[in-house]
Amino acid sequence: MLKGNIVRFTAGFIAVLVLLGACRKREGFSLPDNYVVFTTDAQGLSEGESSIQVKVKLSRGTDKEIPLVIKVTEEGAAYGTKYTTSPAVASGQITLTIPQGNNEASFTLNKVAGALFDGTEKLTFELYSSGSPVLIGATKKFTLTFAELVATNSAYVIDGGGTTLSNKVFIDLSANRQTPVLRTNWDFGFYSGDASDFKVILNATTGMMAKQLNKNDLTQVTAADTLGFSSIVAYSAFAPDPSQIPFIDFPDGDLNKTAIGLISATASDNKVYIVNRGFTGIGTSSPARGWKKIRVLRNANGGYTLQYADIASTTFASIDIPKDNKYFFKYVSLENGIVPVEPEKTKWDIAWNYSGFVSNFGAGDAPYLFQDIIFQNRNVQVAKVLNTTKAYASFAEADIATLTFSSSAMTIGSDWRTTQPQVGVKDQQYYIIKDGNNNYYKLKFTGIADGGVRGKPSIEYALVKRGA
């Protein structure tokens, strides 16, 4: 009896092993090849820029380090005289390693201080070899021109940070460049527009809110002034609340609809605000960034002075923020002072992010947190085109005159994607974007996820008319 059981068990065990082996083989064959590519094929480094980060990425992460060799070809730009890189170029090559479990790596190129460029200099970087099992993909060359670039066409994945939605990504179509910035890197933006305009915006990408008090001295504000604020000056975890609209910046970019009012030239008119700094992650259940009290004044140098402290503090710290006409906003972190966030105003067109949003759920406009929102820059205009009106491939310069353009920051907004009956891109439409340099581009969204990972949408665009 025992012998028969052993025979049956052995036969069954062998069958399981055979089945597992077959499954493994099928699983191995089911995985597509893993490629390494440059994230874009060309960029320009303008006269005012001193460095650039060049990225390579894998189709997916691996369980081992992947060594890469990148060959460098110079045209009028000698290493050490015109430029340097980190890691350094050695024997005409850069060696990189994509870490285990990661799917990208980068190197930084810097202009040599004091070097002169005439705009004809060029570098070509070519993926020459990659460690097994990774193969070299189609975008194996990247060309860097030491001059302003006006891209004619491009397609790439937006680096929103993946499932954590950690980045706000600024996109410059003509420069073929995206600039990802951690959402939690800043708190406030200070408007650098007209000399008479003093406006402050909140970091909506972390779900910030602010409520004005009827006091103008930070030292006289205590925790007693904030009783009940934790439930009303905060995004709702359940039902969006129209009564919270005064505590947010309206997402259409109208600076007359911000939580923090106009900064007055009369110091005593500038009140204290209690600020909820929002969340470090996604949604109201993620860790909180805490509360502060702030007051903003104009200063004698034509800029701003930000006063800030913990709610119960009897003292406060101050930061002076100058206006800078190269930018629409200068940004401040309460931990790190003035920080770089938004590129210069002519060096980005649209931005992708997770952010506070507004919609009417039946009781009036109410704020809630939303992903995959596209904002446009303040000097950019956008028009939507349906494929039934004009196919994307056929749209040409002559068709521009038929369009009506909008300057609202929310012209694209969430309209490019859908969640019902399934999550995806609305492929029946595309957009014409007029940038700050009067270049016209047609742009369409080609994916809401990269390899099934949300937070990495993809776009394709082409130049329709170059600015004069």
Give the helices and strands, then pairings.
Blueprint: H1 2-30, E1 35-38, E2 42-44, E3 51-58, E4 66-75, E5 83-86, E6 93-98, E7 104-111, E8 122-130, E9 135-136, E10 141-145, E11 153-157, E12 167-172, E13 177-182, E14 188-191, E15 200-202, E16 209-212, H2 229-232, E17 273-276, E18 291-298, E19 304-309, E20 317-321, E21 329-333, E22 337-339, E23 350-360, E24 365-376, E25 381-386, E26 417-418, E27 424-425, E28 429-434, E29 440-450, E30 453-465
Parallel strand pairs: 1-9, 2-10
Antiparallel strand pairs: 1-3, 3-7, 4-6, 4-8, 5-7, 8-10, 11-30, 12-13, 12-23, 14-15, 14-21, 16-17, 17-18, 18-19, 19-20, 21-22, 23-24, 25-28, 26-27, 28-29, 29-30
Structural commentary:
There is one protein chain. The strands form seven sheets. A five-stranded mixed β-sheet has the order 5-7-3-1-9, with no helix packed on it. A five-stranded mixed β-sheet has the order 2-10-8-4-6, with no helix packed on it. A hairpin with a 5-residue loop joins strand 26 (417-418) and strand 27 (424-425). The chain has three domains: 35-147, Immunoglobulin-like (Sandwich); 187-338, no CATH class; 350-465, no CATH class. The chain has helices at 2-30, 229-232; strands at 35-38, 42-44, 51-58, 66-75, 83-86, 93-98, 104-111, 122-130, 135-136, 141-145, 153-157, 167-172, 177-182, 188-191, 200-202, 209-212, 273-276, 291-298, 304-309, 317-321, 329-333, 337-339, 350-360, 365-376, 381-386, 417-418, 424-425, 429-434, 440-450, 453-465. 7% of the residues lie in helices and 39% in strands. With 468 residues, the chain is mainly β.
